[in-house]
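1st attempt posting a full record on here, be nice pls
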Amino acid sequence: MLEFLWNASSFVVALGLLVTVHEYGHFWVARRNGVKVLRFSIGFGKALFKWHDKQGTEFVIALIPLGGYVKMLDERVEDVPSELKNQSFNNKTVLQRMAIIFAGPAANFIFAVLVLWLMFFIGEKAAKPVIGSVDPGSIVEASGIQAGGQIVTVNGTETLDWNGVNLALVPSIGNKIIDIEILSLDTNVTKSYVLDIEGKQLDQQQQPIFKTLGITRYRPAVTTIIAAVTEGSAAEFGGLKVGDEVVNIAGVVIDSWEKMVEMIQNNANNPLPFEVMRGDQQVTITITPQAKKTDKGTVEGFVGVRPYGGTWPQEYIITIEYGVLDAFYQGIEKTGQLIKLSFVMIGKLITADVSVKNLSGPISIAQGAGNSADAGFVKFLWFLALISVNLGVINLLPLPILDGGHLFYYTIELIRGKSVSERAQEIGFKFGAIVLFLLMGIAIINDISRLS
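the predicted structure (as tokens):
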């Protein structure tokens, strides 16, 4: 319940902020072009709070935090007094109207730059992308890549950490090859490899793409000492405590965390006797692993514990931090990369190179918001930038119900010298609504399937 509330509150904060930024873009440019703004609403439905400014604009915070809108004076919507016709949106030039519409997505891109600037300026420590192991029979093994090397570039893009690796790999979905450069930490020599991925399924749903390729990232060897016990879990119910060292389960000596996990996963709903060292005493307790359905449809046991990890070698850690100007440049560059990536992935969805199963809805976004907020302020900034860019890009799609659809119509008007007929616009809006609701439905279904 606490996790749900945390995810929900993080989602509301993130989406509310991003929608405010988007709508403020429309609002600000509309005001600068002499358009009278009647209402600025964050959310839909019943108004929770509302007030007016000196120019008569009504500001609203509404009950349903899933969007927002800016209502402008427009003769196509309502009767406009003659003295206010010059402040009507429809009486502005085509270029002015295009600027007002484009301002929403542009505000999201600018916001992403500023957020990423702050993120890079604050800085954080991250693990270098050192390969811990390579899965037997995987694409990576077939290429000749071995464990112990550091991934330094993917398709020519520098990769400082694992987040950078995954971000650089995403555009490769649907391609035939991936070019990777690996730095040997023993010889300090960089070697290039080519991964043959033609016809391979790389869709990332529950795991990063590098994992689907067969790469497991390096982590220090973990202990069998319990670092955390989840509230309400089988471990807590059975009496396992933080600091306990698991030495034996059902007569099997536990000399690694992996062996402990294997025992637990293979014994869903089966009572297991645990022998643990608690201080200088050996204690025996019984824990019954709870059953959990995996993505593959199988059932595994879990008890709800986390181990103490080993110490990271200092040479495997990097501090990603920049000065004021360099951080701003990095923000611009990373935002550009995210915009390009978003359009590439949309194109691959259209060509079916990427499955619609990768679409995420509000549940996944809420989980992402909660997880990133839980991971710290810097991670939450990254999440905000990523969603802000996606919000901007999606709104630029040429669907009549979105900003991009309006821009499409205004482009036609600019070329033809006259506006698109109301009949054509009406048909377009209906088509756009159907496509948008269809995509939203698929995304929500995907969310639900990931929860089951």
